[in-house]
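Training component of the fellowship. As part of building independent skills, the fellow (R.M.) carried out the full modelling exercise for a liganded target. The chosen ligand was NAP. The inputs are recorded below so that the supervisory panel can assess the work.
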Amino acid sequence: MKIAIVTGASSGIGASYVCQLAEKYSWLDEIWVIARNETALWTLKRQCIVPLRVFAMDITQTENLLRLEEELEKVKPYVKYFVNAAGCGINKKIKETDLMDCNRMLEVNCNALTLLTKIVLPYCGKRSRIVMLASASAFLPQPGFAVYAASKSYVLSFSRALRRELKKTGTTVTIVCPGPVDTPFLDTIGGKDSIPVIKRPFIMKTDKVVSVAIKDAAKGKELSIPGISMKCFFRICKIVPHKVLLKFT
Ligand SMILES: NC(=O)c1ccc[n+]([C@@H]2O[C@H](COP(=O)([O-])OP(=O)(O)OC[C@H]3O[C@@H](n4cnc5c(N)ncnc54)[C@H](OP(=O)(O)O)[C@@H]3O)[C@@H](O)[C@H]2O)c1
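Fellow's submitted model of the complex:
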């Protein structure tokens, strides 16, 4: 059985990924969709041409990860596509961030992503594509959004190392690093108004970010950075010392 697995499938980038994979890879036997919002996942199931297998679960709970592992062991699928899109962010200074919110960001963005990758990896093979949702905030420390940005730096570093480890297996890892994207995520960080005015014209459409990521992953690219502004930001962060850039953040 050939499948795709998408976390964070109930909304935003993950949901768009499911729809676009179903169109572009219509030969997939199933797409396994993971998120807590069961209603949203069932709604998605009705819209898709490829059958979806719904895993309505919190990925920070180990017993749920074990349930997924058991299902994989039972079905023994070939995972053509694995998208780690689940994520959350709170934009507050560290001192003002609630302890549980801090923990949630690390649990979802780092822990769950790592453990899920370990669980899914044995079912990937030649021509499999792993896609990790990092963020442009992985390129530079972000005062006021420190834990989130650091968690995305973790995703970037972990995924680069994984890509290297998988070099001879034919499985590629593509790290998606968008700037702001027009999804419900923006509401959780205070809405579009919380984005500095200068950055607002650069808010990208979800479907565009996903279509670029699908093309980049198909080519086996390491990084998928949608939009010219974030590409420039990436270059600047590589050239200019972070100490200097941090003076302007
Ligand atoms: N939007 C942006 O501006 C932006 C920019 C750069 C990077 N990103 C990254 O892109 C990824 C997708 O974000 P998005 O913009 O699509 O945000 P979103 O619309 O808020 O979607 C986040 C997804 O993560 C899932 N999720 C969160 N906590 C979970 C948990 N404990 N267990 C299972 N699923 C969980 C949510 O599902 P449930 O709530 O149903 O569980 C939802 O499907 C994230 O990793 C985010 O950091 C976003």
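The panel noted the following from the submitted structure. DSSP finds nine helices and seven strands in the chain. The chain has a mean pLDDT of 96.
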